[in-house]
Amino acid sequence: MLSRKQRFLTKTGLYFCYFVILAFFLFPLLWVISLSLKTREELFATPPTIIPETFAFENYARVIEQSGVLNYIQNSFVIVTATVIVTLLTAIPAAYAISRFKFKGKSPLLVIILMTQMISAVVISIPLYRLFAQLDLINNYVVLIIVYVAVVLPFSTWFLKGYFDTIPYAMDEAAIVDGCSKFQILTKILIPTSVPGIVSVTILVAVQSWSQFVIPYILLDDDRLYPVSVGVMNLQSTQESVSTHLLAAGSVISVLPVIILFILLQRFIVGALTSGAVKG
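Predicted structure:
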């Protein structure tokens, strides 16, 4: 039985840890936002300050008008939307088969899927570039989307398989008694029941695809086709000599769509992860 003083010290230590972790993750974001609102003279002020003396919102206007960041965001929307659709169309049937069917080699297949998730995009980028350069497929969105799907598909399949496992098999048996086929069980029972899990996968795939840098940087060399993660980097070379504040403004603009999406739909992620944890 903890005394009152011990409970107070425990809560104080716990909240201190929360504060340190929160500051660790939020400080880089706050610093970028601060840089994006500073004038060029304030960038080199000593000592540096987190709050600008004058909020230079014109940095954002200059980035939007002169850098083509909106075109980069549009490119990212096209790539991410196609990636999410193809990934769901592939991962949902795969997860359904792994979750509901027994077949030879199922356990090794799960291990192989998990192993492919551990391969970094940096490792495969150079071989992919050499392959697609020989096939004259550089600057091709279809190829880029296929690579994106290959990167996110193992995680998506594992996630959905875990979510399908939380749904009682008795629901499948009841549907079979009512005359449903395997395809109808998937489309009329599992998918409607798994909406939180599917939405979670959609968000996580969208975030991961939106933030991809190495793969599009390697497979695209036409700046008109760049996604925003690569296009923002051009602010370093296409603007004036000191462009840190413009680069920061471009970075903030580039992450806004993902942050808004995550805030709007975060309850689905929490719900899906909680379901998986309960099952585990």
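Summary: Residues 69 and 77 are 12 Å apart (CA to CA).
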